[in-house]
């Protein structure tokens, strides 16, 4: 984890430092440096902050807290993510209206329980464009939209907690934009539109990679979308729920797994979010054997591209017709 942290932070910050020296006169080199920084940004999001905010990077709470702030350094917000991901997504995966990862804008339909529109027929084609734009929305508006929504849901109900959270979001974003965009606009001897385009390319790469990795683990034909009964209760226990709604992919690729922070082992992560991702491969055999022993599902795609193909198939199904995929 130490090596990964050093690698991803360097991959993110070193290109930005080079850019901010003001000596980059070639626009293609500028774009290449920004894209490289975007890969580092992805690595920070998937391989450092994800574990840290779950409290699984280290046994030391202070270490986890400090490294969780790496998410703020790449333009997002650790506090908002903790509610969205740790609380809502991990507690209610694939439950419409509760899992915040499938609560999407009207032009995307990620649950058979949400309203289907005619334009959803083509979502499997245009979803990639919105995946690519996701981190642009994240660093500009998403955190403010989410924090307001979470306040209305009953979170951040202590005195001045919401105001302090919003102030913190603004402060961290000003810091991020200062070294990732404003300083380059001042220092780099290139037209502003080229710098803005290079900055956009950085986020297009990051958004597409991160969104795809997270969504292909849940929005699939084989995974369930449970529906609460009249008492607002989901049938089965918590472990059944996690296994029914989550899928692994590309388990044999050690390099790929290292680069994406072990998120190809989503089953293990959802069952044991308090365990650091470097251990997922070692425990996956035990998890699979135990699941099969008790006649429980263990969803798996052999490759990342296989998972993407399954994701596309599910998006087509969600866009073409309503269907009931509830297994009680």
Automatic annotation (TrEMBL):
Specify one Pfam family. FA_desaturase
Report the transmembrane regions from the record: 7-25, 31-54, 125-145, 165-186, 192-214
Superkingdom assignment: Bacteria
The identity of this protein, by name, is: Acyl-CoA desaturase
The UniProt keywords, alphabetically, are:
Membrane, Transmembrane, Transmembrane helix
Q: Which PANTHER family match?
A: DELTA(5) FATTY ACID DESATURASE C-RELATED, FATTY ACID DESATURASE 2
Tell me where in this chain the Fatty acid desaturase domain is found: 27-299
Q: Which organism is it from?
A: Gramella jeungdoensis
């Amino acid at each position: 984890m130490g090596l990964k942290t050093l690698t991803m932070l360097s991959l993110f910050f070193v290109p930005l430092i080079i850019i901010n020296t003001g000596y980059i006169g070639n626009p293609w080199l500028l774009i290449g440096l920004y894209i490289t920084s975007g890969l580092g940004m992805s690595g920070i999001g998937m391989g450092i902050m994800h574990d840290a905010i779950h409290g699984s990077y280290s046994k030391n709470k202070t270490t986890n807290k400090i490294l969780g702030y790496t998410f703020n350094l790449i333009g997002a917000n650790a506090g908002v993510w903790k509610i969205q991901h740790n609380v809502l997504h991990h507690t209610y995966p694939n439950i419409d209206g509760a899992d915040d990862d499938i609560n999407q804008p009207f032009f995307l339909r990620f649950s058979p329980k949400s309203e289907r529109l005619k334009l959803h027929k083509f979502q499997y084609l245009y979803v990639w464009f919105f995946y690519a734009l996701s981190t642009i929305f994240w660093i500009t508006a998403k955190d403010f939209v989410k924090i307001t929504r979470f306040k209305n849901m009953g979170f951040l109900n202590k005195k001045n907690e919401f105001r302090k959270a919003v102030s913190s979001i603004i402060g961290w974003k000003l810091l991020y934009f200062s070294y990732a965009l404003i300083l380059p606009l001042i220092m780099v001897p290139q037209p502003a539109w080229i710098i803005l385009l290079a900055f956009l390319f950085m986020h297009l790469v990051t958004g597409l990679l991160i969104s795809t990795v997270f969504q292909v683990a849940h929005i699939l034909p084989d995974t369930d979308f449970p529906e609460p009964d009249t008492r607002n209760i989901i049938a089965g226990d918590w472990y059944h729920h996690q296994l029914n709604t989550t899928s692994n992919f590309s388990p044999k690729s050690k390099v790929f797994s290292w680069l994406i922070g072990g998120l190809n082992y989503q089953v293990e992560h959802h069952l044991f979010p308090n365990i650091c991702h470097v251990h997922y491969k070692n425990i996956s055999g035990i998890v699979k054997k135990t699941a099969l022993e008790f006649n429980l599902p263990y969803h798996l795609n052999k490759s990342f591209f296989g998972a993407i193909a399954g994701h596309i198939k599910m998006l087509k199904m969600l866009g073409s017709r309503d269907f009931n995929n509830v297994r009680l």
